[in-house]
Amino acid sequence: MLVVNVNQCRFMALRSLRSWRPENGVQRHRQLDTTQGAASNGPVSPAGKSNLGRNLPMWFNRTLFAAVGLTATLSMQLALAQPSGVECIAPSDPGGGWDFTCRSVGRLLEEQDRVDGSVKVTNMSGGDGGVGMSYVVSKRNEDPNLLVAASTATISNLAQDRYTGLDHEAVRWVASLGADFGAIVVREDSPYENLNQLLDDVMEDPSQVSFGGGSVAGTWDDLKVRLLAKAAGMEDIADINYVAFNSGGPAQTQLLGGHIDAYTGDFSEIAGQLEAGNVRVLAILAPERLAAAPDVPTAIEQGYDVIGANWRGFYAPGNISDEEYQEWVSILGELYQSEGWQEAMEANGLGPFWQGGEEFGEFVDQNIEQLVETSREVGVLE
Questions:
Q1: More confident residue, 12 or 320
Q2: Among 20, 120, 127, 228, which is most exposed with the fewest C-beta within 10 angstroms?
Q3: For residues 309 and 268, what is the distance between their CA atoms, to the nearest angstrom?
């Protein structure tokens, strides 16, 4: 039986994100803690004006948002040619978060002339990202012109040994460029108009409400729903009816086709569907309402103290040179500071979160250790 509670899964709780300020090179951040509960920090108002005294989640523990590492990286003058013939692998079907990461960053790399020529995006679904990583390690592990989209889901799968024969040290972790907040989504014509209605039906009979997500059972998308059910008072959250898909794209297709009742993904994945009027977002799992969707309430506003944030970034082949690796860190660091990327983050509901180079590698190491421990606590690993 899978048992999850907010304290056990505190690695998912993003208590606040404070904006990094490139104009003065200072990242303001709050002291890290694993304290749960919003009561002592004040409520979130319907307008989204919260007392952001809540602390950062477990996965940010012992990490710094300091701009020192980024500034030092950007100051390096590498005598290397600009990357050319760049390819970005989205290890999923079109329409998911990894696909969004490749396409949005690839477009800006081209527009800002940070690479030579165009950026090819290749969708390589399978194994919840495992097929893509296996391909890179076995076929292109020395290719300096290759990036692969990654996220919290990637290291969650690695921590749970879902990528057979692979571990996180097989590749080089380049950078994270933002954090994406979870969303609970239904069709525009769904009878569910708010999160309370949906969870009431789940509590009454979990089998009657089907959730779909772009990752396998027991990982990122699945855990978000179980956390909400636990916050609603459900004791046996193993009864949640979760249907796994290769990525967010197919899951959304099934939602729009009426084959599942709700979609659990990240806001950037469904921003386009929301704008088109095809879906209704019942809740954002963020500390306050997003600028990109000011009319969508948070789960906290509706009485469920659950926040879920998913960093988005890239890894590169494991055998590229240190110089080639540092060049990518520098390029992505400059892109992160650009007006174009800041606008893209805001438009797609991403929060600011930069980690680059060896600092990002250490961050991933710590996350893997924490996720292994937590996965054992909730019964995913023995």
A1: 320
A2: 120
A3: 12
